[in-house]
Amino acid sequence: MSVMPNIDPKAGEAAKPRVLDPAELDRMAMHFVGNLNRYRENIVIPKSNGPVQIKTNEEKLIETAVESCAFKSAMACVMGYGLGAALGLFSASVNPNMADPFANEKKQTAREVFREMRSTTHSYAKNFALIGAVFSIVECTIESKRGVTDWRNGTYAGGITGGLIGLRAGIKAGIIGGLGFAAFSSAIDYYMHMR
């Protein structure tokens, strides 16, 4: 992009010699005018909610991965397994099926007690992991389809999850389970958002 007009080569004898050739003129124009990209170096962002930090691309990528439905459901499954294992261990430790020491029954060995505690703990953990995964998958799907994040997502997800879990015992149990789980989800949502 030269500033000087192109000169016909036939008229080379009549033209005056140039001081600068077109490449040097282009370099000078780029030096003084600059390129056409304008970078905003001083972005003004109001600091009404505290200091403002602009996220890097890596932070945005990690945030997108953490907020995905797959990560949420996997995390709910793992956390549900841990909570279920803790509750199962507690319930197995207070289980009253120990043998009476004054009766003539066979006494349980420590190995049998630990084996029973392990099966109870694992059973509770699997059930809580399933409930957590199903609830988070349903809630994330509803939130994605509705495009709104509010208390209704948890209520709907609780109703669907409770209904699915209760359907193993029949239609009536599914309806009661759905209503109960929806009410529980609404109460927890209300408590978490209104405190």
UniProtKB/TrEMBL annotation:
<protein>
    <recommendedName>
        <fullName>Mitochondrial import inner membrane translocase subunit TIM22</fullName>
    </recommendedName>
</protein>
<keyword id="KW-0813">Transport</keyword>
<dbReference type="GO" id="GO:0045039">
    <property type="term" value="P:protein insertion into mitochondrial inner membrane"/>
</dbReference>
<keyword id="KW-0653">Protein transport</keyword>
<keyword id="KW-0496">Mitochondrion</keyword>
<dbReference type="GO" id="GO:0042721">
    <property type="term" value="C:TIM22 mitochondrial import inner membrane insertion complex"/>
</dbReference>
<keyword id="KW-0472">Membrane</keyword>
<dbReference type="GO" id="GO:0030943">
    <property type="term" value="F:mitochondrion targeting sequence binding"/>
</dbReference>
<keyword id="KW-0811">Translocation</keyword>
<comment type="function">
    <text>Essential core component of the TIM22 complex, a complex that mediates the import and insertion of multi-pass transmembrane proteins into the mitochondrial inner membrane. In the TIM22 complex, it constitutes the voltage-activated and signal-gated channel. Forms a twin-pore translocase that uses the membrane potential as external driving force in 2 voltage-dependent steps.</text>
</comment>
<dbReference type="InterPro" id="IPR039175">
    <property type="entry name" value="TIM22"/>
</dbReference>
<keyword id="KW-1133">Transmembrane helix</keyword>
<keyword id="KW-0999">Mitochondrion inner membrane</keyword>
<dbReference type="GO" id="GO:0008320">
    <property type="term" value="F:protein transmembrane transporter activity"/>
</dbReference>
<comment type="subunit">
    <text>Component of the TIM22 complex.</text>
</comment>
<keyword id="KW-0812">Transmembrane</keyword>
<dbReference type="Pfam" id="PF02466">
    <property type="entry name" value="Tim17"/>
</dbReference>
<comment type="similarity">
    <text>Belongs to the Tim17/Tim22/Tim23 family.</text>
</comment>
